[in-house]
């Protein structure tokens, strides 16, 4: 993509696609245009056999400042005071977040700077997250009379209830270290090594069978919404089907023969 695009992309030899939010002047806010581009690129990634893992990063000092409030405020000029427009934007944003979860490729957020409101939701929606020591997170809607209800969906599925409510009710900035304690991010590293650490993690995942990763990612999110007994029944069926896949047969054979597996994906 060219440098004027809202999202830049770069594919490594290992099949790791780096997507970079590229609207630095607006702190990479999730404008309608940004959401539409993100929706399209995630859809394309899902069908691209060359892509094995995705890193979602951002240019500039902010990862993502949430929705574009100037754009949202302009929507109030409509006769319905913006109701239809707000509904469309919320549906679009929710669709993007679900696309990330439903994408068969693992997606890792690489966070430096701030990730606030829907930007924090974006981090929580990714499968993994690595943050720099300078990163900060918040759901500050309560400060402006707007509870972060849609970010709440992603937060409540990543954090304990009390940690999620702490962020939602107080709206305070949370340090990267505190975010790791809460379970919002996996690792916190110095900014100077952030990209390398994230890339190394992505490369390790990319070395696995992409078919196996897709099976596992889908199963994780499906079983999470089930009761314990239903989850075990579902996961057991997934394991049976997985055992019959060619990559599982090759992987087990390679382990027993003490050699590297050759994935067919």
Automatic annotation (TrEMBL):
MF annotations from Gene Ontology:
hydro-lyase activity
> Which Gene Ontology terms describe the biological processes this protein takes part in?
fatty acid metabolic process
Which CDD domains does UniProt cross-reference here?
A: crotonase-like
Q: Which Gene3D superfamilies match?
A: 2-enoyl-CoA Hydratase, Chain A, domain 1 (3.90.226.10), Lyase 2-enoyl-coa Hydratase, Chain A, domain 2 (1.10.12.10)
Q: Record's superkingdom? A: Bacteria
State its role: May play a role in fatty acid biosynthesis and insulin sensitivity.
Matching NCBIfam families = PRK08139.1
What name goes with this protein?
Enoyl-CoA hydratase domain-containing protein 3, mitochondrial
């Amino acid at each position: 993509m060219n440098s004027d695009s809202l999202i830049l992309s770069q594919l490594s030899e290992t099949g790791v696609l780096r997507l970079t939010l590229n609207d630095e002047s607006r702190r990479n806010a999730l404008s309608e245009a940004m959401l539409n581009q993100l929706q399209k690129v995630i859809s394309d990634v899902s069908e691209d056999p060359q892509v094995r893992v995705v890193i979602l990063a951002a240019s500039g000092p902010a990862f993502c400042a949430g929705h574009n409030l100037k754009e949202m405020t302009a929507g109030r000029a409509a006769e319905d005071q913006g109701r239809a427009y707000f509904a469309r934007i919320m549906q679009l944003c929710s669709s993007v977040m679900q696309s990330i979860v439903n994408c068969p490729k693992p997606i890792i957020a690489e966070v430096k700077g701030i990730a606030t409101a829907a930007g924090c939701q974006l981090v929580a929606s990714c499968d993994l997250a690595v943050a720099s020591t300078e990163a900060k997170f918040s759901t500050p809607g309560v400060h402006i009379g707007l509870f972060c209800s849609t970010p709440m969906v992603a937060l409540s599925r990543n954090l304990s209830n009390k940690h999620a409510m702490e962020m939602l009710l107080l709206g305070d900035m949370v340090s990267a270290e505190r975010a790791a304690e809460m379970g919002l991010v996996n690792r916190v590293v110095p900014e100077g090594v952030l990209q390398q650490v994230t890339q190394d993690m992505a490369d390790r995942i990319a070395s696995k069978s992409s078919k196996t990763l897709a099976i596992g990612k889908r199963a994780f999110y499906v079983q999470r919404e089930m009761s314990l007994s239903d989850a075990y029944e579902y996961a057991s069926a997934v394991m049976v089907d997985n055992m019959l896949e060619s990559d599982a047969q090759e992987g087990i054979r390679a382990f027993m023969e003490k050699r590297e597996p050759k994935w067919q994906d």
